[in-house]
Structure formats: structure tokens, C-alpha cells
Design brief:
Elements lengths: L6 E3 L1 H23 L2 H7 L15 H21 L3 H18 L6 H15 L8 H5 L7 E3 L1 H19 L4 H4 L5 H4 L11 H23 L4 H19 L4 H8 L22 H16 L11 H4 L14 E10 L6 E3 L8 H7 L3 H14 L7 E10 L5 E2 L28
Antiparallel strand pairs: 1-2, 3-4, 3-5, 5-6
């Protein structure tokens, strides 16, 4: 049961708070120090927001926001003003993620979900400054659901990642690892059989690791596998903080005992509203990754239903786009210089993602207001997993007039033909 009345030691929750908060703090400080606040939110002239009307706060505002997030992450870690800190971090992080699709990553989505769940649980009731400030907050036993929800969430993440790898491209052709591994500086990875071995091992790991972590006899070896797997991905692919987030998050599976001297203090914490909130949350988490089944075509090609579905490192996709603006009155047509509006990274991400192409067409329509009802078309060529460059978008469609929608099928994407 989601809200079962059994009690568990609070230690796994406290350890998760400390470890995950520390990773969030380091990650946020790293983001500031590497200049990414400027590169992602200050330097670009335009953005690709998930929601219309959301805009960056300007240079001072964005740096202030990230400093606030770093402090909130630190406060989560040490358990200082925990409730406020977790809400502040969650809201600020959600805002930054909604600003631009260009920078969407699965591990940012994971951070959003975990900080949302951390807001709902009393992870500050032990080993925290809040308890030092107010000893009456201390608890050593918490309702089991406060720990189980994190296990459920990780189960969904790993299982969805594993199921998405059960494809011919991944298992039979070792794609895209057969492209990526030889490109590294590690000689051993240049052998073709290594790509196949890694592909099968990756699928097996994702599909089995949750069950190994749940079973006490295999828990320790499972966590060793978690460390090995994620350190390998960190070294080979340099994918930022994701490996460390997963290594810290999976600590929740261990029933870490309390010191023997501790008294048994049970916390009665079962707000009725949380049954509804968590029920809706997990229903969405279970269904949303499979929404791609509602769309025609090849998922990795159209990317309709791809985001927010825990599909990790499944494709090598590159594209080239030529945007054209036409004056419907004079008939004059000219090619757009994308670098005049987008950073190189934004352009590279836009070139393979149809919804971003449509948003860019809307940007161009706004920028060329001297032309009444400009026609914006694109000549786009995309290659998926080294299958050769193909025409991607119907070049006769005026993308400036297409309506933005989270769920509507984009009929102007040319179907994938693997021949």
C-alpha cells in the first residue's frame, strides 16, 4: 500500500537527504562556476520554453536564482529550514528547466521529481540542524511509505530505461554504442564486440538492478554494480552529475540501522491529501513513458513522446536545417542565417527536434514583422544512428502557422524509411 501504516527506521531517508542534497549543491555550484548560467540563459537572444510566456530573469536575476538554489541545496543536505529549502529548490529548478528545451536532460527531470518527493517527506527529523534547533522535531521511525515512494520512483526509472533498450538497434546492431565507443580515447573500446557487450549489459543492468537492490542477499553486490556501472558511464561519456545522482539515490534501498542508544520515536505522518497527490504522481509516472504508443511513426525519429520517458542514450541523431522566409506578396524568398538568432548549441539541438523547429519558425515570424504574414519553411535532413541522411520535414508546410501543442501529432514530419 502507498500509505501503509508500518514504520521504518528514518536513517535511509536521512542518508538520502544528505547525499542527494550534497550532489545537488555541488552540481549547482559547478553550473555557476563553469559559466553555464551565462551560456544557457544570458548569452542566447532567444529560447525554446516548454511553456509560453516564461523568460529568463536577466543576468543578475539568473545568477541570483542559482545562488539561491545552491543555498537551498546546501540547506537540504544539512537539514536547515528543510521544508522551506526543499520547496525553494524545487520551484527554482522547475523554472530553470521550463526556460529552454535545448538543455533538457533525463537527470534534470530526475532532480525535479526527487526534490518534489523530498518536499513531501519528513527527511529532516533526524541528523539535521533543524533537530538541533528544535529537539521536539526528532523522530527515529517514520511511516514506510515515506521511503517506499523513492524506491517506486527509481524502479520506474530503471525499468523504463531497460524496456526502451529492447530494440533491434540496441541489441542486434549495438547502436548507438557502436558509434560512440570507438570515438573515445580508450583503445579497448574500439573493438566492435565491446559495443555489443556493453549494449546487452546495459539492458540487463537496467532491467534487473531494482530487483537486486530490493533483495537483501544481493543488495550489497547490487550497489557495487550500481557504482561500477555509473562510474563507467561517467568516465566514458562524461554525462555530468547523472551517475552521482543515481549512486546517491539508490542508497534509499538500504535499511541502515539507528545507533543502539537511540530511543524509538515514531512519527505519525500520514496527511490524507498526500494519498491523492502521490496517487496522481505515480499514475502519471507509469503512463507517461508509454504515451509514444498513441503516435504513428518511429519514436526515435519523430521524438513524439520521447521526453520525460526515461529513454537514456538510445540514439545518435544529427541534422542540417535550412530555413527560408518568403514574402507572400512579392514572392521574394531568402535563406535565414540561423547563427543570427541562435547559439550553436541551440541550433544543433533544434536541427533534430521537430517541436523546436516549429518554435524557431514562430521566432522568425516575429522577427520579420516587416513582411506581412511571412511564410517560413524548412529544408531539413536528419541521420538516425548512422542510417544515412533523410529528408525530415515537409518543406512545403508553413511552420509559422502551425500551432504549438504538447500532445498533437505533427503531420509534417516525414515518416522514417529504413531502406
Amino acid at each position: 500500500m502507498m500509505m501503509e501504516t508500518k514504520y521504518r527506521s528514518i536513517m535511509p531517508l536521512a542518508v538520502l537527504r544528505i547525499a542527494f542534497g550534497a550532489v545537488l549543491f555541488i552540481s549547482t555550484v559547478r553550473f555557476i562556476m563553469k559559466g553555464w548560467v551565462h551560456d544557457f540563459y544570458v548569452k542566447p537572444s532567444f529560447h525554446f520554453p516548454f511553456l509560453e510566456g516564461i523568460h529568463p530573469l536577466g543576468e543578475t536575476g539568473m545568477y541570483s536564482l542559482y545562488i539561491l538554489m545552491a543555498l537551498a541545496a546546501l540547506f537540504i543536505c544539512i537539514g536547515l529550514f528543510y521544508r522551506v529549502a526543499s520547496v525553494v529548490f524545487f520551484l527554482c529548478f522547475c523554472y530553470t528547466e521550463l526556460l529552454d528545451k535545448t538543455y533538457y536532460l533525463n537527470h534534470y527531470y530526475l532532480v525535479t521529481i526527487f526534490t518534489f518527493l523530498l518536499m513531501l517527506v519528513p527527511a529532516h527529523r533526524y541528523c539535521s540542524i533543524d533537530v538541533l534547533r528544535k529537539p521536539s522535531l526528532k523522530a527515529t521511525q517514520v511511516p514506510a511509505w515515506t521511503i517506499l515512494i523513492f524506491k517506486y520512483q527509481l524502479g520506474i526509472v530503471y525499468c523504463c530505461a531497460g524496456l526502451s533498450k529492447l530494440t533491434s538497434d540496441w541489441l542486434l546492431h549495438a547502436m548507438p554504442l557502436r558509434i560512440w565507443l570507438p570515438a573515445t580515447a580508450i583503445p579497448f573500446l574500439k573493438y566492435e564486440w565491446v559495443a555489443y557487450a556493453f549494449s546487452w549489459a546495459g539492458a540487463l543492468f537496467d532491467l534487473s538492478i531494482i530487483f537486486l537492490l530490493l533483495y537483501k542477499r544481493t543488495q550489497r553486490i547490487a550497489y557495487v554494480l550500481v557504482i561500477i556501472f555509473h562510474i563507467l558511464t561517467a568516465v566514458i561519456f562524461q554525462i555530468g552529475m547523472f551517475p552521482y545522482l543515481m549512486m546517491s539515490a539508490t542508497l534509499i534501498f538500504f535499511d541502515i540501522p539507528l545507533p543502539k542508544k537511540e530511543k524509538n520515536i515514531q512519527l505519525n505522518y500520514n496527511p490524507p491529501i498526500l494519498k491523492i497527490v502521490l496517487g496522481i504522481h505515480f499514475l502519471i509516472q507509469l503512463l507517461f513513458p508509454f504515451r509514444y504508443l498513441l503516435y504513428p511513426g518511429t519514436l526515435l525519429w519523430t521524438e513524439e513522446g520521447y521526453r520525460f520517458s526515461w529513454r537514456v542514450m538510445l540514439m545518435e541523431k544529427s541534422g542540417t536545417t535550412f530555413f527560408y522566409v518568403k514574402d507572400p506578396v512579392s514572392g521574394r524568398k531568402f535563406q535565414v542565417d540561423n547563427t543570427a538568432f541562435l547559439t550553436r548549441y541551440q541550433e544543433r539541438m533544434m536541427e533534430t527536434q521537430p517541436d523546436m523547429m516549429m518554435q524557431y519558425a514562430h521566432i522568425l515570424k516575429q522577427q520579420y514583422q516587416n513582411i506581412k504574414n511571412p511564410i517560413v519553411t524548412v529544408e531539413s535532413y536528419v541521420s538516425l544512428n548512422n542510417s544515412g541522411s533523410r529528408l525530415y520535414i515537409d518543406s512545403t508546410v508553413n511552420l509559422a502557422n502551425e500551432k504549438a501543442s504538447w500532445f498533437a501529432h505533427k503531420k509534417w514530419i516525414i515518416p522514417y524509411n529504413n531502406k
